[in-house]
Amino acid sequence: MRIVVTGGAGQIGSILCGRLLNAGNEVVCVDNLSTGSRSNVTDLESSSGFTFVNADVSEAIAIDGPVDRIYHLASPASPPDYLRTPLATLAVNSRGTANLLRLADREHARFVFASTSEVYGDPEQHPQREEYWGHVNPTGVRSCYDEGKRFGEALTMAHVREGGTDARIVRIFNTFGPHSRPDDGRMVPNFICQALTGRPLTVYGTGNQTRSLCYVDDTVEGIISTMEADIPSGEVINIGNPEEHSVIQFAQMIAQLCGVGFQSVARDLPEDDPARRCPDISKARQLLDWSPRVSLQAGLENTIQWFRTATVQEDLVGAGADPG
After folding, report:
1. Residues 226 and 266 in one domain
2. Of 82, 120, 145, 215, which residue is the catalytic one?
3. Is 215 a catalytic residue?
4. How far is CA 51 from CA 2, 7, 11, 19, in A?
5. Which domain holds residue 265?
6. Residue 286 falls inside a structural domain
7. Helices 11-22 and 216-228 meet at what angle, rounded to 10?
8. Do 113 and 189 have their domain in common?
């Protein structure tokens, strides 16, 4: 198959590209490198089946040749990135999604929209099921991402209902692992970078807010399973790990695995930061026969080892200094 992956130079996108390429597909990776990194796909570029296109999908996007599958992952995803670029974040999830859905319709391609657990906002239901409509501040500082993704979901469903587009939606919960930028600003890269450079780990609020972390290989398998499953068009599926821990527990575990004593510094909780985040993955288990396989400790050990590599070490100084 010939497959388009937008946001293909990002953490999840680049590992997805590699997985699809290794399965014998032709992969077109589209990324404007605003938050992705060309280094994430360097090892793929020697393959004749891989094409990198530097483009912003919010503008008109042209892909030469046939297209069988479209994975739309393009979007800033960490709070520092989308708070810095709110208009671009809204554009890629609205105009960008519209452009790619039109491409899917022209090529009769199957489409997956990568949404997010942030569509649930600061949830009043726990754990979060796909039927839950969410508790989102539509005008808050995070709304560029939260509402951008909610609009992308609505647009995808409108194409399914009106145009018969073969589309699915994955709501991706917190994902960690290799290919994450040291200055990404999310919890795991922040804690690892700070621990490896001998700094206190920045904990927002009390640290009692919870998160559920899914290793990136498991996330990628869940996304592919959603694309290829024999399920009705328009299905919405949570992809994440239901193992829930507090932020302070994650910080303590990462410090221990990095071989340093635990030290922390407290900061005020960011606006609209969710108190709890944990997926109900019953639907993924039932429809996809999917659930995470990589343990939290094994995933963290792999991630820390990746951050210790020479090329990443060069970027550690300054990373994690002011996390989001």
Report:
1. no
2. 145
3. no
4. 11, 13, 17, 15
5. 178-212+242-275+294-313
6. no
7. 60
8. no
